[in-house]
Design goal:
By secondary structure, the chain is mostly beta strands. The chain has a domain of 104 residues: Beta Barrel (OB fold (Dihydrolipoamide Acetyltransferase, E2P)). 6% of the residues lie in helices and 41% in strands. It contains 1 helix and 6 strands. A 5-stranded mixed beta barrel has the order 1-3-4-6-5. The radius of gyration is 22 Å and the shape is globular. About 20% of the residues have low confidence.
Length: 161
């Protein structure tokens, strides 16, 4: 089984190209933190090359930029090519099946970082890119039926059974 799950931040803006038959393909690199610290107590990161195809490639180009946080699931692919000097080069990359947009570069998902003096705006959801205001009733503490619109009358007499 060849399955990869990654969460990281883009190290550069995605590059979008089109193949000869007009299929969109985007490439970018994600920095993924390691789960442990080195001997100096610093957390290191791995830099993983990502390839995404078709409509998702266009969405990645349109909505992500350097510093954006993403969750990716896909598969590892190794390919080879001959460089300009005729030497064989090998490339290992992740071909993404799904790319979920998690946040912008100003956001922090680390709950221990809540004492930071720099406040950041909350991140948009994967489907709301900040263009529309949040609808009423989506706050977990609010009444979901409050200010929903006109009242609805329900009667047991109208039920078919």
């Amino acid at each position: 089984m060849n399955k990869v799950f990654l969460i990281g931040r883009l190290t550069r803006d995605p590059e979008l190209r089109y193949t000869g038959n007009n299929t969109a393909v985007a490439t970018f690199t994600v920095a993924v933190n390691r789960n442990f610290s080195n001997q100096q107590g610093e957390r290191e990161a791995d830099f993983i090359n990502i390839v995404v195809w078709r409509k998702q490639a266009e969405n990645v180009k349109n909505y992500l930029s350097q510093g954006s946080q993403v969750a990716i699931d896909g598969r590892i692919q190794t390919r080879s090519y001959d460089d300009q000097n005729g030497q064989k080069r090998y490339v290992t990359e992740v071909v993404a099946d799904n790319v979920e947009f998690m946040g912008s570069k100003g956001s922090s998902t680390n709950s221990n970082n809540s004492s930071s003096s720099k406040e950041t705006k909350s991140d948009p959801t994967p489907y709301d890119f900040g263009d529309t205001p949040e609808p009423k009733g989506t706050d977990i503490d609010s009444n979901p039926f409050e200010d929903f619109g006109s009242s609805i009358q329900i009667s047991d007499d109208e039920l078919p059974f």
